[in-house]
Design a protein that fits this description.
Chain lengths: ~350, ~120
């Protein structure tokens, strides 16, 4: 009888400690566990007033210590937040804007698909468009959340929540030159969602349409190769949306922002070059058809034409990249706040 | 618990939170293990629960105000804490601040009482 009770008590202590340790996110768990075991034993002796402690004593002691979850929370240096109260307001603000922007992009894309999908009735009646909208909202939600979880883990605090500040370092109210109007990131997110949806779900609708027969389309892209570049493509879109989220949070061009966008743009450019150079994404039919229609009788071989097209596209993007970058850096340095340089 | 009691206990908790550190630092001039400190504070009518004190000891150790050592020669392994020189310095300053704070608050509250009395007349 007594032996059984002792066994039960031992068991309960082990279960309690296991639960505390389970919730604990500390690197000296062993130490805490040892200390906790001695503490429970001390408290038990105390509550039994020198006699033999009973199971009832143990229950009272554990009740006094509190639930395992509460106790482990008291031990944790970082509280159990995925997204803590300091960045939570910013998280909610960004989430709202991104979801609205996503909704705009996906609705336009869904509308376009409804018009062009070969079986419109099926697309609308089976509710595929509902799935499209739901999925893209879910992806945006996940994207923003993951981004903020990373920020929380990295201990990023946005300026406005800073505890210690000097009024003389208050950022200047952004002048018109460096202010980013809120509609820009919103349009950008909507546009990216739109492009992503069309590119991933209905790439066949991007193509040359015959005036006399709208059901006949020659897609621009090689539809068999396209799925293989989608992971790279998603990274490009993701970077672009991340840039927009930054713009929503900070709303002005700073040197830090210019550096960030430069890095992100370079990655995007490299990915684009990889996609164009390594994957035959263009539809050969499309190119030959264009040649026929526009009576291009080129001496160039098909492959030469292709690489020339790729080079034109890449140079165009590099040009846009350089112009945008120099404008941003110029504005950041010329008009930016001296205190906010990096 | 009525709403009033809840407000009072919440505010009391806030008031006491800072004083616990003061109590711990003054008691750990000589080394003690966690539960003996709980008992000692309790005997002096400064009741602190073990589940508050143990995590606090770790935090203070991490801040460098305390240092600890395991004592394994007894029946149970025990972790003893003692203030570091930094801890003593911090305690001395905190104590002075505390005494001043008590004095100022007393003065303020007594004055308020007098003024209040006049207002009611």
């Amino acid at each position: 009888m007594v032996e059984k009770e002792m066994y039960d008590m031992e068991d309960m202590i082990n279960r309690y400690i296991y639960q505390v340790m389970k919730h604990l996110s500390s690197n000296n768990k062993k130490d805490i566990e040892a200390e906790l075991r001695t503490l429970i034993s001390d408290m038990l002796e105390d509550s039994a007033h020198g006699g033999q402690a009973s199971l009832e004593n143990l229950k009272a002691v554990l009740k006094e210590l509190g639930s395992p979850y509460d106790l482990s929370e008291k031990y944790s240096e970082n509280s159990h937040y995925l997204i803590g109260p300091k960045i939570y307001p910013t998280y909610i603000m960004v989430m709202k804007i991104v979801l609205y922007a996503t909704l705009v992009g996906i609705v336009i894309a869904a509308a376009l698909r409804t018009i062009t999908v070969s079986d419109t009735v099926l697309y609308v009646s089976t509710g595929y468009w509902v799935t499209d909208i739901f999925n893209s909202l879910l992806i945006s939600f996940a994207w923003v959340t993951i981004l903020f979880v990373i920020l929380e883990r990295k201990g990023v605090r946005f300026k406005r929540q800073s505890d210690e500040w000097d009024p003389s370092t208050l950022p200047q109210t952004p002048t018109r030159e460096i202010e980013i109007p809120i509609y820009k990131p919103i349009i950008n997110i909507a546009f990216n969602v739109f492009v992503a949806v069309i590119f991933i779900l209905s790439p066949q609708i991007i193509g040359a349409y015959y005036l006399y027969d709208s059901t006949k389309v020659i897609p621009i892209f090689n539809l068999e190769v396209l799925p293989r570049v989608i992971p790279l493509f998603i990274v490009i879109i993701g970077l672009s949306i991340t840039k927009s989220i930054w713009e929503i949070i900070d709303r002005k061009i700073t040197l830090r922002y210019a550096v960030f966008t430069a890095v992100s743009d370079v990655i995007q450019l490299l990915l684009l070059i990889i996609i164009l150079m390594r994957f035959p994404i263009w539809n050969p039919d499309f190119i030959t058809t264009q040649n026929t229609i526009f009576h291009i009788s080129s001496n160039l071989s098909y492959n030469e034409q292709l690489s020339r097209m790729n080079i034109i596209i890449i140079s165009l993007f590099v040009l846009i990249f350089l112009i945008e970058l120099s404008v941003k850096f110029y504005k950041a340095i010329r008009y930016g706040n001296k205190f906010e340089i990096l | 618990m009525s709403e009033k009691d809840e407000i009072i206990s919440g505010l009391l908790l806030e008031l006491r939170r800072g004083t616990i550190v003061l109590g711990v630092l003054c008691q750990l001039a000589t080394s003690k293990y966690g539960y003996s400190l709980v008992q000692q504070l309790g005997e002096n009518d400064v009741a602190v629960e073990a589940n508050t004190l143990y995590p606090l000891l770790r935090r203070l150790e991490k801040q460098g105000l305390l240092r600890s050592e395991w004592e394994t020669s007894g029946t149970k392994p025990r972790k003893y804490y003692i203030t570091t020189p930094l801890g003593i310095e911090v305690y001395t300053t905190l104590k002075q601040e505390w005494l001043q704070m008590v004095e100022k608050m007393n003065k303020l509250m007594n004055k308020e009482q007098e003024d209040g009395g006049k207002r009611n007349v």
